[in-house]
């Protein structure tokens, strides 16, 4: 009887992991599809330089995508807890709204920056009535700024999005306690967090800009790897205290 129940729980757990991987790939596919639609319309309006700002903005959705990775979490005993996807879907609506608002706020700022420093006579400058003195072409600086900003977005997404949810699943110290624990962990592992942020930012920007189909492999693989590493590192740090 015990053997049957154990085997059924293992198979159920494997099923959850398969669904988790499938949802990560599906989310990557949705982001890829949206990116291609955006790139097409930006090209039609001769605003291709702005594409990198949208790519950087996609990183803001990482906390939302990472929710489907929770079936991969290991507890402090090195075991996987039973995960119910209905819990995810119950809260995913609110998270979607918050993430979408953050994305819109960033894109509004990106439009202003593009119109001020890259193309003062662009279609966007006329639509939003942005008037400024000519500053010359600062396309390189615009790209560099977006790369740095993508890295910051990735770091912020992990600290205020991915880690608090991960900690809530493992320790559940309350909303405030989870955020405090997240910031404490990030402070104690600054170098590691910066490296993870660089990996995620690169997995989004580089494929979408230079080898778009690789995004469907590089982004989900990088996100899963970083999530698993954060899980292991948090367990190690909490056990060693």
From TrEMBL:
Q: Which UniProt keywords are listed?
A: Membrane, Transmembrane, Transmembrane helix
Where would one find the signal peptide in this protein?
none
Q: Where are the transmembrane segments?
A: 21-44, 50-73, 85-107, 143-167, 179-204, 210-228
Q: Which domain of life is it from?
A: Bacteria
Q: What is this protein called?
A: Putative membrane protein
Q: What is the source species?
A: Colwellia psychrerythraea (strain 34H / ATCC BAA-681) (Vibrio psychroerythus)
